[in-house]
Amino acid sequence: MFHWLWVLIIGAVIGAIAGAITSKGKSMGWISNIIAGLVGSAIGEAVLGSWGPQLAGMAVIPSIIGAVILVWIVSWVLSKR
Q1: Taking the model in full, what pTM does it have?
Q2: Is 55 left (phi over 0), alpha (psi -120 to 50) or beta?
Q3: Which of 26-30, 38-42, 45-49, 52-56 has the lowest mean pLDDT?
Q4: Cα dist. 71→4, 32, 48, 56 in Å?
């Protein structure tokens, strides 16, 4: 039970870091931060592997890189609309 809570918190932090790096953090809410962190983590670990420090089963550095890429792509697609 507490593992999933920890995963959501770390996902939110990773998403917030990605939003801050891409300067899109102000436009994202906390639910978007969690989604960006979790999906970005999956993308980052699939592409880059699971190296570096890990929190809640997520490799932090590949997760942040994946979340930054995800936030950048989503904001680019939404700006085209």
Answers
A1: 0.82
A2: beta
A3: 26-30
A4: 23, 10, 17, 21
